[in-house]
Amino acid sequence: MSRQRTFDLVIAANRLPVDRVVAPDGSSEWHRSPGGLVTAMDSVMRGREGAWVGWAGETGEAPAPFEESGMWLHPVPLSEEEQTTYYEGFSNDTLWPIYHDVIVPAHFHREWWQDYEVVNARFADAVCEIAAPGAKVWIHDYQLQLVPAMVRARRPDVRIGWFNHIPFPPVGLFAQLPWRAKIIEGLLGADYLGFQRQADAQNFVRAARQLGGCATKGETVTAKGPDGGERVVRASAVPISIDYAGLDELARSEPVQERAQEIRESLGNPDIVMLGVDRLDYTKGIRHRLKAYEELLDEGVFVPPEITFVQVATPSRERVEAYKTLRTEIETTVGRINGTYSDLGAPAVHYLHQSYPREEMAALFQVADVMLVTPLRDGMNLVAKEYVTCRHDEGGALVLSEFTGAWHELHQAFVCNPHDIEGLKQTMVRALETDPKEKRRLMRALRRRVCEYDVQRWADRFLSNLESAPQRPGRSKGD
Ligand code: ADQ
Q1: From CA 303, how far away is CA 455, in angstroms rounded?
Q2: What is the dihedral angle through the alpha carbons of 260, 263, 267, 270, rounded to the nearest 10 degrees?
């Protein structure tokens, strides 16, 4: 019997970085998913023995572990029911709304929680099985908040980090969760907790103090270890970024430039193209954006076909009720706007409920005179960073909500409060009317920021914080 392979670096995330693609003849193969996390981890994994633990995307029995592009992939099974309870239920209908300011009500079901615990334990088992002695374990996101303590209980030898891709809520909202103490305890199994914004890290520290009864000082929380001894856990901000060099190169490539021209022509060569690109999620502020646009049309400030608005909305969480409602609302609004303001062959809104390859997204970004990123709450928002990265021509303008993590880095954007429709309208007009020379200066500064702080830098910073995080009270801390 072959011995279990073990690894110095183990990533755990809800999803594996691959999708099974089935050919017309029924044969199937794994394709790498295009996300930024995959690119980030690629560079981290290079030169290391790295493994990734996650769900392969299909319910039922999990495929056997396999190697893909130099990475060992270790699938964790999910049953049909667990997909509903752990994933769509507890992760996306309990935690997601609580962590995003309760834009829609959160639903609490004890069975969902029970399955969340069960699935987290399954992930922890898989991690323990393949982590080499003294390995680094990097756990991702809100679906796996119990894994740090579960791993620590069995493997005190490994170093455990957790990164939250979404906001961490203020204590007043977090307190609503019936299982809040268990979640704090789960997270405190880590050595280092990384967040998108300083405010998120502070919210966690406050929750650990007020709800978890822990002593805290600055960025650190003192937790009880499984042996009864004290451990110190550090929580700080390490904002995620994108592969600037890779995307910049793609955006400059001839096929993408040609495609950008083609898109503009197929839109009827309007004077102004506005663009929104989001998962179809109520956190993204798509409705607010459409409302502002519609009012500007009503008032005759915007007059199609000189102006058009392209909204790309990736299908998302389509079985969760709040997402079904949102989709109906958005499609009704788009229908109403187009019914009133479109001409034959010249819609006032182009609405695309589809996913596109990176090349197409890069071309679209180059067409957008104004990019509308207007979330009500967003951990970071990578679209904002991707847009400026694709603007090597220094053209375009970014309208960015102050409720995104991205706003804390991209200060040269045209900032907006999406709840303030009047203010949002004024910002959209200002983004168009600002002197082009000034806009180029702003775009240059935005690009510089993303270039300097790219995804590689994010991953390096996370790992170095993990390495230097104090374990015992009194130990020195990292940056
Ligand atoms: P998301 O909520 O998914 O991520 P975001 O950061 O905007 O939000 O990332 C979406 C990604 O999907 C971007 O790379 C974008 O280009 C891509 N995308 C969107 N629509 C697409 C389409 N139709 N076709 C193809 N690609 C599309 C969560 C958090 C964020 C945080 C990220 C990373 O909610 O706040 O920034 O994780 O930490």
Answers
A1: 40
A2: 10
Rounded Cα–Cα distance for residues 253 and 95 (Å): 41
Which residues of the chain fall short of a pLDDT of 70?
1-2, 34-36, 226, 472-479
Q: Which residue's CA is the nearest one to ligand 1's atom 9?
A: 382
Which of helix, strand or coil describes residue 81?
helix
* Tokens encoding 200: 């998120």
Ligand 1 mutation target, pool 99, 371, 381, 385, most atoms within 8 A of CB: 381
ipTM over cut 0.95: yes
Q: Are strands 349-352 and 192-195 parallel, antiparallel or unpaired?
A: unpaired
Residue nearest ligand 1's atom 31 by CA: 380
Q: What is the pLDDT of residue 475?
A: 46
Distance from C-alpha of 400 to C-alpha of 411, rounded to nearest angstrom: 9
Burial of 134 (0-12, 13-18, 19+ CB in 10 A): exposed
What is the pLDDT, as a whole number, of residue 194? 98
Q: Which DSSP string corresponds to 132-164?
A: EEEEEEEEESGGGTTHHHHHHHH-TTSEEEEE-
Structural element, H or E, at residue 336: helix 321-341
Name the residue of 100, 277, 323, 400 to mutate for ligand 1: max ligand atoms within 8 A of Cβ: 277
Residues with CB under 6 A from ligand 1: 36, 165-166, 240, 277, 279, 312, 314, 354-356, 361, 378-383, 386
The full length of the chain comes to 479
Q: Which amino acid is at 410?
A: L
Tell me what pLDDT residue 477 has: 43
What's residue 38's pLDDT?
A: 77
The separation between CA 162 and the C-alpha centre of its own chain, rounded to angstroms, equals 14
Residue type, 256: V
pTM: 0.96
CB 230 within 8 A of CB 473: yes
Question: pLDDT value at position 42?
Answer: 76
The model's pLDDT over 315-344, given as tens digits with 9 standing for 90+, comes to 999 999 999 999 999 999 999 999 999 999
